[in-house]
Specification:
single chain; alpha/beta; 28% strand; globular
Length: 248
């Protein structure tokens, strides 16, 4: 059976204009991700990690090169088409959770469905309840973010990312604000989701977190400098040493 590629970039570049200066955030990134993979993207600040994730998440488009998502060429899509493919294919998880305060976990999770045509309020509520149960928070559905621990808030954020049943989960430093024990719990959850068939691409600067994935792509100065498998669950072989975080 042929291997199914869900993410494919070919010589992707991204250039930003800062005053009269051109900044080359990506300089020709070629990579492919198979359905069901779990990948860590690593690199120091300024390496291009977040720029790459924005392109993979259809939040931005390449300046040059091509990006194909699940068989659809992204390059020439309109903003409405980009929004549509994001809603259909991708769930996002961020370092800062991005939950609405004074809004319950259940309401936070069902929020993306309010923008989906044809979804009734009852259907959205049922899907949100199922997503919270999937991440082990069924009993915390009516708690607001300030009543939840950091790990619980990230679980709510993951449930929100999953509520539309995307095939791809993009996570940008999902454990960056969590302690070691809670980070491990979140990574175990993400691995379970991956085992259920969700493709995971995750930015991290933490070797211990990258060691939970199956493959590591390392960027430097907008280029892929390493693309290697992780030797085994929790193995530090092929995992770069700790790298600085920050805007990039």
């Amino acid at each position: 059976m042929a291997i199914e590629i869900v993410i494919e970039t070919s010589a992707v570049g991204r250039t930003f204009s800062v005053g009269r200066t051109e900044v080359h955030a990506l300089r020709g990134v070629t990579l492919s991700v198979r359905r069901g993979e779990m990948i860590a993207v690593m690199g120091a600040s300024g390496s291009g990690k977040s720029t790459l994730m924005n392109i993979l998440g259809c939040l931005d488009k390449p300046t040059n090169g091509s990006y194909t998502l699940d068989g659809e060429l992204v390059n020439d899509m309109t903003p409405n088409q980009l929004a549509d493919i994001r809603n259909r294919k991708i769930g996002f998880v961020f370092q800062n959770f991005n939950l609405l305060s004074r809004t319950t976990a259940l309401e936070n999770v069902e929020l993306p469905l309010l923008y989906t045509r044809g979804r009734t309020a009852k259907s959205a509520r049922q899907s949100a309840e199922a997503a919270l149960a999937r991440v082990g928070l069924k009993d915390r559905a009516h708690h607001e973010p300030n009543e939840l621990s950091g790990g619980e808030q990230q679980r709510v954020a993951i449930a929100r990312a999953l509520v539309s049943e995307p095939s791809i989960l993009l996570a940008d430093e999902p454990t960056g604000n969590l302690d070691t024990k809670t980070s491990l719990e979140i990574m175990n959850l993400v691995r379970q989701l991956n085992e259920q068939g969700v493709t995971v691409v995750m930015v991290t600067h933490e070797p211990d977190i990258a060691a939970h994935t199956k493959r590591i792509i390392e960027l430097r100065d907008g280029l892929v400098i390493r693309d290697v498998p992780v030797a085994g669950p929790g193995s530090r072989e092929n995992v770069p040493k700790d790298q600085d975080a920050g805007a990039h």
